[in-house]
Structure prediction request, 314 residues.
Amino acid sequence: MSEKILPDSSPEAWGRVSERMEGQQWPTHALYVVATPIGNLGDLSLRAWHALNRADVIAAEDTRASRNLLEAWGIGTPLMAAHRHNEMSAAADIVSRIQSGQRVALVSDAGSPAVSDPGGLVVQAVRNAGMRVIPLPGASALITALMATGVTTDASPGFVFAGFAPTKSTARQRWFRQWTQLPAATVFYEAPHRIVASASDALAVLGPSRAVTFARELTKRFEELATMPLADAAAWLVADPHREQGEYVVIIHPQALMQTEELDVEESASVDAWLDALLETMSVRDVARIAAKATGQPRDALYARALARKAQRE
Prediction:
């Protein structure tokens, strides 16, 4: 059953906002770096739609994938290819176009260009030529996963984005050791056919109690997010054959307690006792807040520890 949520005046409202977009400045001699939907077509912004319509050409990672988006939104701007195999030559062409007065829009298959996607070399070339680069924010798998996980807070907003994990096990384990040393969440992308092997390598390096979040099919119909100890990751991944589909965003949660504030065995048992008792009736957030007052330990560290213990119990 569908539910009508738009007021009768919504077309007028969209028209008013679109008129305001019309009145904004849309400089020529510029590269527009445009974020596009990561799955849900509705996530294209109205400003992005205007920019793509106004561009003289759209430089796309995959012209076939981008053509589907443009057709869905009624955008007729011509396309040119700018992918990792031709990025240097495409960058030279784009610089020449911009110098001649064109507006060029840069898009990737999904999400934000130049963020673990082609486009960075194009941006560098345009900037080095002294031309203007205008970023248009929008959908990002990385940010979407963090928003739904709660691993970052206003008090502890830090995270590390490591891009794609290496494809070989030895290199991947070395990579995990390198990237997970900081007291912050480590976020990376992984292909579905390597996700089980990647989780096994993380387990070997980080141990069974380290919390991990898997996010797949973000913004799509079968979107799935799950947090658990690494000990349970492999079993969860193979429990449903659909989990072999769709690119993953993986978040390795920070260590439960900072290395400079490690607890001895007795203190650790006391803290865990507090957490286990409070988890029976409270949310993880409230447990962390109260346990921090009772134990004097950092709230964010206790939050991660409580999250891991809750996952172990479920």
